[in-house]
Design goal:
The complex is a heterodimer of chains A (about 250) and B (about 270).
Chain A lengths: L3 E12 L2 E12 L3 E5 L6 H8 L7 E6 L2 E2 L7 H7 E4 L11 H13 L3 H14 L15 H13 L5 E5 L7 H16 L3 E5 L3 H7 L2 E6 L2 E6 L1 H6 L4 H12 L1
Parallel strand pairs in A: 3-8, 3-9, 6-7, 7-8
Antiparallel strand pairs in A: 1-2, 1-4, 4-5, 9-10
Helix pairs in contact in A: 3-4, 3-5, 5-6
Chain B lengths: L5 H32 L6 H8 L2 H41 L6 H16 L2 H11 L12 H27 L2 H9 L4 H16 L1 H14 L11 H12 L3 H32 L1
Helix pairs in contact in B: 3-4, 3-6, 3-10, 3-11, 4-6, 5-6, 6-8, 6-9, 7-8, 9-11, 10-11
The chains are: A alpha/beta (about 250), B mainly alpha (about 270).
């Protein structure tokens, strides 16, 4: 059995009186691609933000490489460097060119030399077919290109795990594929990934495990072939039929 | 794009011509009414000779212009100080951790005090108060302490403008910085501030226009800048025309600057919409 990369144990999170995560248990193995599905408000985004330590959890624990990263008082910065997060709305820095977006964090945190920064970044841009866009500013790029730059920006820190928060939801339909291609490429390279998504087709094709979230709980978890063909929970059945209808 | 039909173009041109004609006519009517009615006022001849005396305007104008260079010099010295202090105060107010609470309190107190006191009062208190300590030359100069009073007041305003800029940068930008593992201060320095400062350029331009005018308030504590120079002429010639001359010089600077600020603001609106 593959090495456990990340383990969530009974994770709870509320915003004020509103419970968002109500006891999430999840184990992610090295190189595994886990897809989180479920309607808006089911807790997918919050779960990813908690793993990246953007939101502190209320209860339970998050274990990364056998270290409890949810322990109160722990410095979140080194953890965030190892767990990349890509947002639905890209969140590129609009005042910086694509290459500056990508090199900022390695320059400030890893203290790489200029030469090293440039060669690493150029390599990443080349790998995802964006070498000719390195000097463009975000507003000069299409949505798909912006999202790919955002993925490159996270990858530049050499993360061990990548989290994707509905990264194709803000894109025009014809631009979705180019971003999904990047995800496929990462999967082939053995990146450990958790993906909150509405792209059922992609989840069916590429995921190792699919988790159905409802009201802050994982109500069903299975391999995609099982979950999509024979969902056991009525809530999953209803969700899938409504998504697939559209 | 297909060009519009000839009939529509003709109609729109006609509408435009009509608009220009109406605006011109109404402006002329107002001007006519003013030029006819004002000179009929009983005191007009007196006002004209004591405020709009062409001879005096010409003879005093060069010295007013020369005195105005001191206004510009004071303005230019205070600028970098205001920019730096304003930025620091804005950053103080943005501190959210408990350790930094004293800084945050200081920022709040500072902006409250210096925005809450009339500029002229700050100038009096600092400009007369500190030289009163009996400091040796040049530290008893009203230039220095008057300028400091302007710096303190305007940096409080600039700090608030910058803070509003910082708050206008969307939370998701900070989240993106954090998610990469960047520290709070790096996120502020490389991600939030560059965007915030760019957004508040027009507001700060207006602040500069106000500052240029308020330099004249220093005339009350000593420096012979333009307003004081005009006052000297007024006393010697028993005529108010030098004040009008001073106003003309201020307008020559502030009107273009205000127009430029408006232009920047309009440009920004366009870019954002």
């Amino acid at each position: 059995m593959a090495l456990t990369k990340l383990e969530l144990v009974n994770v709870h999170k509320s915003f004020g009186d509103i419970p968002v995560l109500q006891g999430i248990d999840l184990t992610v193995a090295e190189g595994e691609l886990v897809c989180l599905i479920g309607s808006s408000g089911s807790g997918k985004s919050t779960l990813l933000r908690c793993i990246n330590l953007l939101e502190p959890i209320d209860n339970g624990k998050i274990v990364y490489n056998s270290e409890d990263i949810s322990a109160p008082g722990l410095d979140p910065q080194p953890v965030r460097q190892k767990i990349g997060l890509v947002f639905q709305s890209f969140n590129l820095f609009p005042h910086m060119s694509a290459i500056e977006n990508v090199t900022l964090a390695p320059r400030r945190i890893l203290r790489q030399s200029r030469k090293q920064l440039m060669s690493n970044a150029t390599e990443l841009f080349a790998k995802f077919d964006l070498e000719d866009r390195m000097d463009h500013y975000p507003d000069q790029l299409s949505g798909g290109q912006q999202q790919r730059v955002a993925i490159i920006r996270a990858l530049a820190m050499n993360p061990q795990i990548m989290l994707f928060d509905e990264v194709t939801s803000a894109l025009d339909p014809e631009l979705i594929e180019e971003v999904l291609d990047v995800l496929r490429q990462l999967k082939r390279q053995g990146m450990t990934m958790i993906l909150a998504t509405h792209e059922i087709g992609f989840a069916r094709e590429a995921a190792d495990t699919v988790c159905m979230l409802d009201q802050g709980r994982i109500i069903e978890k299975a391999a995609p072939s099982t979950l999509f063909s024979n969902p056991t929970e009525t809530r999953t059945q209803a969700f899938l039929s409504s998504v697939l209808k559209n | 794009m297909k060009s519009r039909s000839a009939a529509r173009v003709a109609y729109e041109q006609k509408q435009k011509r009509k608009g220009v004609a109406i605006a011109t006519l109404s402006t002329l009517l107002v001007l006519l009414a003013l030029t006819v009615s004002i000179p009929r006022a009983p005191g007009w001849e007196k006002v004209k000779s004591s405020f709009f005396n062409g001879e005096i305007l010409v003879s005093t104008f060069p010295s007013l212009l020369k005195a105005f260079t001191l206004d510009i010099a004071i303005f230019l010295w205070s600028l970098p100080a205001i920019a730096i202090l304003g930025l620091l105060i804005a950053l103080c107010r943005d501190q959210k951790t408990p350790v930094m609470f004293p800084l945050r309190m200081f920022g709040i107190l500072y902006t409250d005090v210096f925005r809450g006191v009339p500029v002229i009062l700050t100038i009096f208190l600092i400009g007369f108060g500190i030289p009163g300590l009996g400091l040796p030359r040049p530290w008893n100069s009203p230039y220095i302490w008057g300028t400091l009073a302007l710096v303190l007041t305007y940096s409080a305003y600039v700090a608030e403008v910058i803070r509003s800029g910082i708050e206008s940068v969307h939370e998701s930008q900070r989240a993106a910085g954090k998610s990469l593992g960047l520290s709070q201060s790096d996120t502020m320095r490389f991600i939030v501030l560059p965007q915030a400062l760019r957004r508040v350029v027009p507001a700060n331009m207006n602040m500069l226009v106000a500052l240029q005018k308020d330099v004249a308030l220093l005339s009350f504590i000593g420096p012979v800048e333009i307003l004081r120079q005009a006052g000297v002429h007024k006393s010697l010639l028993a005529n108010f025309t030098p004040y009008v001359g001073a106003a003309i010089i201020f307008l020559a600077v502030t009107v273009p600057a205000t127009r430029y600020a408006d232009y920047l603001l309009a440009k920004q609106h366009k870019e954002r919409s």
